[in-house]
Design brief:
230 residues, alpha/beta, five-stranded parallel beta sheet, 8 helices, 12 strands, 21% strand
């Protein structure tokens, strides 16, 4: 399934946390972050998480003990981050049921490779031709959009704009960048004012309350993004 794979990154080192979030978002993952075990539990209970990246050493708890508690409530694919390569620590982490581990310091590309490997293994039976977010589904083969499993008619340009946003969860697209994407693929001229009209029409078709959008958000002074955190 081409979907917004949502990763919860639990790490108390802010430099590592910010760096990993930036790199993972560039890979089109939706990333939530936490620096404590307590907050991590709250986020897991509040959000649908596809993969957990969990540091073993946290300020308020041991990551392995935290994972045992999480696993008693929800079975999440998990990669441990560990500051040492002691065999006992690694064995204990994997014995809890975690999918993989990586030892600090590590290269970001290695972590991303391991993430993709775990996700392919866990979600290998899911359809790769749809994008799903909240109650919206896009069938890429049919170029069709569904809301609550009901087909929604979008014009070609509305569909293109929606796809640009949905393919990059959390990324802010300036109005200029959206217009450039459309100009590259469509003969019909769209100016800045027309784009506003198209966004309004898309919201009217897909949002439960178009005046208070929850899917396509306006980022004041910048542009638009698909909101994955709420």
């Amino acid at each position: 399934m081409v979907k917004f794979m949502k990763i919860l990154l639990v790490e108390d080192d802010k430099t590592i946390l910010d760096g990993l979030r930036f790199c993972l978002e560039k890979e089109n993952f939706a990333v939530l972050t936490s620096s404590t075990g307590l907050n991590a539990l709250e986020q897991i209970r509040e959000h649908k998480i596809d993969l957990l990246i969990l540091d073993i050493n946290l300020p308020d708890t041991n990551g392995i003990e935290l994972y045992k508690k999480i696993k008693s409530e929800k079975d999440l694919p998990t990669i441990f981050l560990t500051a040492n390569d002691l065999e006992t620590t690694i064995v204990e982490a994997l014995d809890t049921g975690a999918d993989d581990y990586i030892t600090k310091p590590f290269k970001t590309r290695e972590l991303i490779s391991r993430i993709n490997s775990v996700l392919r293994r866990v979600y290998k039976n899911e359809n790769s031709n749809t994008i799903e977010f909240k109650n919206i589904k896009i069938n890429l083969n049919e170029a069709c959009v569904y809301k609550d499993n009901e087909k929604v008619f979008l014009t070609a340009l509305e569909y293109k704009i929606l796809l640009i946003l949905f393919m990059h969860p959390g990324r802010v697209f300036t109005r200029e960048s959206i217009l450039a994407e459309i100009w590259d693929t469509e003969e019909e001229y769209v100016n800045d004012n027309t784009l506003t009209v198209y966004i309004k029409r898309i919201r009217e078709k897909l949002e439960d309350d178009p005046a208070n959008p929850k899917v396509i958000l306006t980022v004041r002074g910048l542009g638009y993004k698909v909101d994955y955190e709420n």
